[in-house]
From TrEMBL:
SUPFAM superfamilies xref list: Phospholipase D/nuclease (SSF56024), PHP14-like (SSF143724), PPK N-terminal domain-like (SSF140356)
Residues the record marks as active site: 486
Biological role: Catalyzes the reversible transfer of the terminal phosphate of ATP to form a long-chain polyphosphate (polyP).
PTM entry text: An intermediate of this reaction is the autophosphorylated ppk in which a phosphate is covalently linked to a histidine residue through a N-P bond.
Essential cofactor(s): Mg(2+)
Segments forming domain Polyphosphate kinase C-terminal: 382-546, 554-725
Sites where the protein binds ATP: 95, 519, 615, 643
Family assignment from sequence similarity: Belongs to the polyphosphate kinase 1 (PPK1) family.
Binding locations of Mg(2+): 426, 456
NCBIfam families: poly_P_kin, PRK05443.1-1, PRK05443.1-2, PRK05443.2-2
UniProt protein name: Polyphosphate kinase
Biased amino acid composition, Low complexity: 1-13
């Protein structure tokens, strides 16, 4: 495949030791050694190269931050509509929240417990936290600069404004005063700080104010400090009535501005010397000991309450807050200066997402489209008949998710359907999938649902779904205690002409209709006997007990997936060494598992061309002479969140295409129940290969990773611009 694109525009680099550039072409095989000054090459046979050398790997957490930097870059890309550029900027805040709640919290826990672990990159938690702080502060400051200096002025040009207190007209100020009196004052609860009122426990990521007071209160107490939690029941962004705005303008006021303006009313008779917003991010990871839990659902309910009050990991404060108050807050939360983020604007940008749903400006959003359908599913279709004719593959969101829901609906109402089995990881509170399962169970069908209660930040929803299904008569299983059930599977048993016929659905993404419109994923609907039999066995293994079952066609984590992927990579290496055709293409969300990375290094050394399309974290270092110079790593960032997991092997012309629920990560390979399914139908496999080739040709939204850890946005130059997502949208979807 010819690469017609050029690269430039590096993102902020990760500060890691860099490999030497190597000698004149052709370079000799290299042995890479870590030294204080970086990596130095020694001429040794490549077979002796130390693939365990820490210098061959990027750090996972810093690579995660790089992904957010690429997302932030989208807010500056004028090819995106303006409100969607704002969306990208706000997504960064949401991503960083989870990054601190889980990843940074985990590193801090290691330090606190004196149990430091290093990954393949060899970086200690102390060093990683230092780099996280450096990069995090740079990017957060840049994020607010983009908001204030680029997006807010651009939105104002489109007559969408965020009004600060100094900009309120007298009429707007009067309306805000009424709103405060009627909506805010009745539910606000100030907390004065004195010996009988210690510093309160504040909910994770809640908006709060620290207030400086002067004067004497009704009980004779001298003024000092108070904490003012913003009511969680109120929106953080309030739209002003149209009659109070200039003609054609839509004006918003932040709740924080209203509280600032009327803080004195909360403390009558006292002088408010200062009022400053702040927000604490806490450790939100759930910890359930499998050896001490007899009822997972009950244990999780308790943990969900504890999540709101975990140890502090980050403090965000208004940039005008005095140092004395900041020091006081840092001491209260046992945080250091490196954990402090001073921000020029609202401390919780994610809440600005409300604007995207409130402003009716289709000219400032991506153009709408209608997801397409493959020919066998167009019109009034009996899905069982259609699937019997051959495997059907859907590529969401370019193609509709509705057939997946329809398959369950038809199964629920079909008198010939005997049993339905389903895994649920992230599904949504008002899921049509769950509604169909409830209908099937109430209709007397045998319905078994494996719900993963520990799907991070969806635990409460999944507990509610479990109760709803149980009340309908479904058998609900919570999977295997020590392994999250991340596989995406559906199994339907139907009686046809006196015999039982099996149908299955396998996917790379969750059974969630909303995210199916935003995430790219593959769905396979099949009546293939071998695939259906394997799906049946995986369900039996999840619900019952016993030794691992022999599964013939699927790859199954934590049992066969990792081992077989390594074997298939090594097979390509042997083919290349024997002068035969070999190639590997992997598309997934993360590449962090060291043994898989080492296998790819071996394949590269053997001469195998390896193309990796990794959306987020990538610990593999491409382009090292003699080690990874045949590996290229790309990341596609665009309108849709890339989520498909595809593993392709040329195999000397005997092409193999696999789709999976699993990323190339340790947790997916060893600590989760995952499936990886082959595309046995040649037309279906060819469709995915064509899609993958489209991604590799992208020269508009493709970022290429270099040896130094920098990502460069590819540009078409004189070539034709190619956006993979736009190309697929045009190919599969109907334009509205």
């Amino acid at each position: 495949m010819t690469d017609t694109g050029t690269t430039d525009t590096p993102s902020s680099p990760i500060d890691l030791p860099l490999p030497a550039s190597g000698e004149e072409t052709p370079p000799p095989p290299l042995r890479v050694n870590r030294t204080r000054k970086g990596i130095h090459a020694k001429e040794t046979p490549s077979s002796q190269a130390d693939l365990d050398d820490a210098a061959l790997y990027f750090n996972r957490e810093l690579s995660h931050l790089q992904f957010n930097i690429r997302v932030l870059e989208q807010s500056l890309d004028a090819s995106h509509p303006l409100l969607d550029r704002l969306m990208f900027l706000l997504i960064v805040s949401s991503n960083l929240d989870e990054f601190f709640e889980i990843r940074v919290a985990g590193l801090k826990h290691q330090l606190a417990s004196f149990h430091e672990e290093t990954g393949a990159d060899g970086m200690t938690p102390t060093r990683v936290l230092s780099e996280v702080s450096r990069i995090g502060h740079e990017q957060v400051e840049r994020q607010y600069r983009i908001l204030n200096d680029v997006l807010v002025p651009a939105l104002e040009e489109q007559k969408i404004r965020f009004r600060r207190r100094a900009q309120w007209t007298p009429e707007q100020a009067a309306w805000v005063a009424d709103y405060f009196e009627e909506e805010i004052a009745p539910v606000i609860s100030p907390i004065g700080l004195d010996p009988s009122h210690p510093f309160p426990r504040l909910v994770n990521k809640s908006l709060n104010f620290i207030v400086e007071l002067e004067g004497t209160d009704a009980f004779g107490r001298e003024g000092g400090m108070a904490i003012l939690p913003a009511p969680r029941s109120l929106p953080r962004l309030i739209r002003l009535p149209e009659a109070l705005c200039e003609t054609g303008f839509t004006d918003y006021v932040f709740l924080s501005s209203m509280i600032h303006a009327h803080a004195h009313e909360v403390f009558p008779g006292m002088e408010v010397e200062g009022c400053y917003q702040f927000r604490l991010t806490r450790n939100a990871d759930l910890s359930v000991d499998p050896e001490e839990v007899s009822d997972l659902a009950s244990a999780l309910r308790g943990e969900l309450l504890a999540r709101r009050y975990g140890s502090g990991v980050r403090l965000e404060v208004a940039d005008n807050c005095p140092d004395s108050l900041i020091d006081f807050l840092l001491k209260q939360f046992e945080l250091g200066e490196e954990d402090l983020y001073r921000v020029n604007g609202p401390v919780n940008l994610t809440r600005m997402m409300a604007v995207l749903g409130d402003v009716q400006r289709p000219d400032l959003r991506y153009r709408p489209f209608t997801p397409g359908l493959p020919k066998p599913l167009r019109g009034e279709v009996n899905l069982f008949s259609a699937i019997r004719q051959g495997d059907i593959l859907l590529h969401h969101p370019f193609q509709s998710f509705t057939p997946v829901e329809d398959l369950l609906r038809q199964a629920a109402r079909d008198p010939d359907v005997m049993a339905i089995k389903q895994t649920l990881y992230r599904t949504g509170a008002d899921s049509a999938i769950v509604g169909a399962l409830v209908e099937a169970a109430r209709g007397g069908k045998e319905v078994t649902v494996v719900i993963e209660l520990r799907a991070r930040f969806d635990e409460a929803d999944n507990l509610a779904l479990a109760s709803r299904l149980q009340e309908a008569g479904a058998i609900v299983i919570y999977g295997v205690m020590a392994y999250k059930t991340h596989a995406k599977m559906m199994h339907i048993v139907r009686r046809e002409k006196g015999e039982l016929r099996h149908y299955a659905h396998l996917g790379t993404g969750n059974y969630h209709a909303k995210t199916a419109k935003l995430y790219t994923d593959y769905s396979l609907m099949t009546a293939n006997d071998e695939l259906c039999d394997d799906v049946h066995k995986v369900f039996q293994q999840l619900s019952g007990m016993g030794k691992p079952r022999k599964i013939n066609t699927l790859l199954h984590a934590p049992f066969t997936l990792h081992k077989t992927l390594v074997e298939m990579i090594d097979r390509e290496a042997k083919l290349a060494e024997n002068g035969k055709k070999a190639r590997i293409v992997i598309k997934c969300n993360a590449m962090t598992e060291p043994k898989l990375i080492r296998a790819l290094y071996r394949a590269s050394q053997a001469g195998v061309t390896c193309d990796l399309i990794i959306r987020g974290m990538c610990c593999l270092r491409p382009g090292i002479p003699g080690i990874s110079d045949n590996i290229r790593v790309r990341s596609i960032i665009g309108r849709f969140l890339e989520h498909t997991r595809v593993y392709y092997f040329h195999n000397d012309g005997k092409h193999e295409v696999w789709c999976s629920s699993a990323d190339a990560m340790e947790r997916n390979m060893f600590h989760r129940v995952e499936t990886c399914f082959p595309l046995l139908d040649k037309k279906v496999a060819q469709q995915v290969r064509k899609d993958i080739d489209t991604y590799l040709l992208d020269n508009c939204q493709s970022w290429e990773l270099d040896t130094e850890g920098q990502y460069h946005l590819r540009h078409p130059g004189a070539a034709e611009p190619i956006s993979a997502q736009e190309t697929l949208l045009y190919a599969y979807a109907s334009q509205a």
